[in-house]
Amino acid sequence: MARATAIVPLLKEMGETDVLVSGISGDINLPFPVRYQLYGMSFIFGTKGGVDLEKTILKLRLFRFLKDVARLPVKKYDIVLCDFEPVSAWACKLKRKKSIGLGHQYAVLHPDSPSPPKSDWFGKLILKHYAPVSKKYGFHFKQLDAFNFEPVIRPDIRNCKPENKGHFTVYLPSFSDEKIIRILSLWPEIKWEVFSKHSKSTYRISNILIQPISLEKFNLSFTSCEGILCTAGFETPAETIFMGKKLCVVPIKNQFEQACNAAFLSEMGITVIDDLLNDRLKIKHWLENSGGVQIKYQDKTGEILQKIIMHENVSGVLFKP
Q1: How far, CA to CA in Å, does 294 sit from each of 112, 218, 248, 268, 290?
Q2: Per-residue pLDDT for the chain (321 aa), expressed as one digit of tens each?
Q3: What's the pTM value of the predicted model, to 2 decimals?
Q4: Given 3.40.640.10, 3.10.105.10, 3.40.50.2000, 3.50.50.60, which CATH number is that of 155-288?
C-alpha cells in the first residue's frame, strides 16, 4: 500500500490506470481513487508477535474470493500489474490473461537473496502460489539482477529533511500494547512513540506515547526520530536505511517473508531481534550504539515502470487513449 502511493501516480501519467485493492488488514488511506475494493485474503495479526491463524481462517471468505476472481474483468485491460495481490493474479491465471508481478515478494526467493537458517516449505509454498503471475519483477534491499531492483522510496521520504529529535518510533502490529509497554518501560529515559494496530485512541503511559496508525503522523514521527523499532517488513526498513537512521527489526513469527528480510538485513549489519520479550540485551546494545546503515537508493521508479511496460506490451497497445 505504501509503495502504491509512489507507483500509481507514475502509472497514471503513462496512461489510463484503474486501481484494485484487496484485503482487510490495510492501515493506509490511498490518495487516489480505488476502482475495485475487494475482500481478498488477509493474514490477521495476533498480539504475541505472530499471525493469529485461528482468526485468519475465521476471516477467510473462500466463496467470496472465488466470486471476485470470476467477476474481475481482467481481459478488458491491456496490462495487469500485480503487487502480490491474489484476486487479480488468480483472475489472470484462470482466464489465461498475462499478468506482470511487481513487488517485493517476487524477489524474496531469488537465489542471491539471503535465506534464514531454518527452511520453511509452507512459507515458500505461499510465496510461490498466493499471487501467481506470468512474469516477475521484484524489489529488495539491494538490486539482485536486471529484473530485481532497489526499493521504491516514497516521495514524502525522499524529499524530506530528516531530523533527530531524540525519540524512537515503534511499529509492531503483531504485539499487544501491553506487551510493547512492558518492554519499552525498561528504558524510562527514552521517549517512545508507538503506532498501534490495536488502539483506537491516543494515550500516554510515562515515557511511552501510544497512538492509532496514521500515515501522516507516522511520517512526522519517522522522519524526526533517532531510530525505529519495527517488523522485518520491507518499505519501512528500506526507508529507514535511505535516511540513515538506527534500525532494529523484529520479524513476525511464522512469516517466511519476514524471516528472509531479517536474514538480508542482518547481513547488512542491521540489528535483528528474534524474541522481543527476551532479547533485552540486544535492544539495550542497539539503543547505545550510535548511527545506522545508510544507502541513498536512487530514484529509478519511473524508469523501471517504463521499461517493464514497454518490454511486456505484447499486444502493441500500451494504454487505451
Answers
A1: 21, 20, 14, 10, 13
A2: 888 999 999 999 998 999 999 988 777 788 899 999 999 988 877 788 877 778 888 888 999 999 999 999 999 999 999 999 999 999 999 999 999 999 999 999 999 999 998 888 888 999 999 999 999 999 999 999 999 999 999 999 999 999 999 999 999 999 999 999 999 999 999 999 999 999 999 999 999 999 999 989 999 999 999 999 999 999 999 999 999 999 999 999 989 999 999 999 999 999 999 999 889 999 999 999 878 899 999 999 999 999 888 876 544 333 332
A3: 0.90
A4: 3.40.50.2000
